[in-house]
């Protein structure tokens, strides 16, 4: 599985030389390194939402973008979510990423993830050419002018020794290119963990990196989904897992100081109820405890899965892509973790926003109203513009007035048509000021509306690509990436089909 070191060295040198023009050209030199401490929650890139908009609404200046993978096993070309309609291009997320960077933030593109790692479409599992893997990494790095790439390696990819070796060799090639051109580059590995540190398979990934001379800057542990049939104190287990990783890193990197070792540690929580169930629930109190611990230890990265889950839209429910499963306000976890980013400061002038009532039920064809109130929380009052998003078909929103001075209020009217589809929807009410953006959530339930599915029925023999919708067993489903033969509702929340609700 390993070529002769002499051959590899020659290939690495040649490819490094070939890559100097790309890495050293144009705006690549302007890339700003990430802060020494960074909060970067995961953004689910398949939902069709704007990362720049959610970054502003949540207060998370940095995002980890999930995921990059090949469309088919054996390919060397990565796409966002493996969707051939979402190539590595400035036309796909480029404007959003520039907006985030213009606000002083950045994104961390992440390769792999659960689906890629179980289907052979993680690029180093899929592609057998080390140089082409390095080229793919370089294209992401330069297209989006970022400084860190993440490798999310779990499940089957942890057992693919050839893929592990190719990945680390490709990272070394990329690092040599970056060093030759003076380009800042960081590499993070996101790995599953036990409550006491990495399992042997995850540790083997790092050992192989050391063998190949690939520098790992951050080891980001997924401190959730333990699946050991025990009730967990998720904050305590994060701390013991972090200490376990520190001890493992100390053996791998014996010349590093304690501060340097802690500075290699990253933590990713799964907010609310994780995939195992209520026995592994990460609460807001857990978040505050983990925040204080992370600051005291000087770890590098604090994250969670995922930004779109940071709301209380399904209290008492199971793990889902779009809500936490616990009672909370929208962006509660983001607001606890956001100050972790070093150099972050609260706006001089700031405000809050709330909707009362926070929910309502209407018959299709009628309207619901709520009072949207704002209040000054810091500094002076500022002009706040109001908008609503997440509106289903057949629903419109209006504000009277459309903007207020912080401290004032407006009436939100949600009007529905007779053709509106029955169901419950989370409406985001966003208040935008010169120095801050905040969001409240209004839950709208529509009864007596349309119930007929409009999407074409799912077919076992049809090929679907990311974004396509089908109807199946009374629900509408949206494909997150390319798929063939996977039945909606049978592959779980990490599967290809996203449940858009009853139709």
How does this model look, in words?
The protein is an alpha/beta fold and 503 residues long. The protein folds into 3 domains: 5-340, Glycosidases (TIM Barrel); 350-447, Immunoglobulin-like, CATH 2.60.40; 463-502, Carbohydrate-binding module superfamily 5/12 (Seminal Fluid Protein  PDC-109 (Domain B)), CATH 2.10.10.20. It has 13 helices and 26 strands. It has helices spanning 5-18, 20-24, 51-58, 94-102, 114-119, 123-126, 130-143, 161-181, 200-212, 234-252, 258-262, 284-297, 332-337; strands spanning 38-39, 42-44, 62-70, 78-80, 106-112, 148-152, 186-192, 218-222, 265-270, 272-273, 281-282, 301-305, 350-356, 359-363, 367-378, 383-389, 395-400, 403-405, 409-416, 423-432, 437-447, 463-464, 469-472, 475-479, 483-484, 497-502. Strands 1, 2, 3, 4, 5, 6, 7, 8, 9 and 12 form a 10-stranded mixed β-sheet that branches. Strands 14-21-20-16-18 form a 5-stranded mixed β-sheet. It has a 4-stranded antiparallel β-sheet with strand order 13-15-19-17, with no helix packed on it. Helix 3 (51-58) links the parallel strand 2 (42-44) and strand 3. Helix 3 (51-58) runs parallel beside helix 4 (94-102) and helix 10 (234-252) runs parallel beside helix 12 (284-297). The longest helix is centred in the middle third of the chain and has 21 residues, at 161-181. The radius of gyration is 23 Å and the shape is globular. The N and C termini lie far apart (51 Å). The model is unreliable at 1-21 and 24-30 (pLDDT under 50). It catalyses: Random endo-hydrolysis of N-acetyl-beta-D-glucosaminide (1->4)-beta-linkages in chitin and chitodextrins. Residues 1-30 form the signal peptide. Residues 37-327 form the GH18 domain. Its EC number is 3.2.1.14. Keywords: Carbohydrate metabolism, Chitin degradation, Chitin-binding, Glycosidase, Hydrolase, Polysaccharide degradation, Signal.
């Amino acid at each position: 599985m390993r070529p002769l070191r002499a051959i590899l060295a020659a290939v690495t040198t040649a490819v490094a030389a070939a890559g100097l023009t790309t890495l050293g050209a144009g705006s690549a030199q302007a890339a700003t390194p990430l802060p020494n401490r960074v909060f970067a929650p995961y953004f689910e890139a398949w939902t069709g939402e704007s990362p720049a908009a959610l970054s502003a609404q949540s207060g998370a200046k940095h995002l980890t973008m999930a995921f990059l993978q090949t469309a088919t096993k054996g390919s060397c070309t990565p796409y966002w979510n493996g969707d051939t309609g979402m190539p590595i291009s400035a036309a796909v997320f480029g404007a959003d990423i520039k907006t985030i960077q213009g606000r002083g933030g950045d994104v961390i593109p992440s390769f792999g993830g659960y689906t890629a790692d179980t289907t052979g479409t993680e690029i180093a599992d899929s592609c057998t050419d080390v140089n082409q893997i390095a080229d793919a990494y370089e294209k992401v790095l330069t297209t989006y002018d970022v400084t860190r790439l993440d490798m999310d390696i779990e499940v089957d990819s942890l057992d693919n020794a050839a893929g592990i070796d190719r990945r680390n060799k490709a990272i070394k090639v990329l690092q040599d290119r970056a060093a030759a051109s003076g380009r800042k580059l960081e590499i993070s590995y996101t790995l599953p963990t036990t409550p006491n540190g990495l399992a042997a398979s995850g540790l083997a990934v790092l050992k192989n990196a050391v063998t190949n001379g690939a520098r790992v800057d951050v080891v980001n542990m997924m401190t959730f989904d333990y699946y050991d049939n025990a009730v967990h104190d998720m904050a305590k287990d994060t701390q013991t897992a972090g200490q376990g990783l520190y001890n493992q890193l100390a053996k791998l990197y014996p010349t590093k100081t304690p501060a340097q070792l802690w500075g290699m540690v990253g933590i990713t929580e799964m907010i609310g109820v994780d995939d195992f169930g209520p026995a592994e629930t990460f609460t807001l109190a857990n978040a505050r405890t983990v925040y204080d611990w992370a600051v005291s230890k000087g770890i590098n990265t604090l994250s969670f899965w995922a930004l779109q889950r940071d709301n209380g839209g399904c209290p008492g429910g199971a793990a889902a892509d779009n809500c936490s499963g616990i009672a909370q306000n929208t962006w509660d976890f983001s607001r606890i973790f956001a100050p972790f980013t070093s150099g972050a400061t609260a706006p001089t002038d700031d405000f809050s926003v709330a909707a009362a009532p926070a929910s309502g039920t209407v018959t299709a064809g009628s309207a619901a109203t709520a009072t949207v109130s704002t209040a000054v929380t810091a500094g002076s009052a500022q002009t706040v513009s109001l908008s609503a998003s997440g509106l289903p078909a057949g629903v419109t929103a209006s504000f009277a007035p459309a903007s207020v001075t912080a401290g004032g209020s407006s009436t939100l009217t949600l009007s529905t048509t007779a053709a509106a589809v029955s169901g419950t929807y989370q409406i985001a009410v966003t208040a935008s000021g010169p120095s801050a953006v905040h969001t409240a959530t209004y839950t709208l339930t529509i009864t007596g509306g349309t119930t007929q599915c409009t999407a074409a029925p799912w077919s076992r023999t049809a090929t679907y690509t990311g974004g396509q919708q089908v109807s199946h067993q009374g629900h509408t489903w949206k494909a997150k990436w390319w798929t063939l033969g996977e039945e909606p509702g049978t592959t779980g929340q990490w599967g290809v089909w996203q449940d858009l609700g009853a139709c």
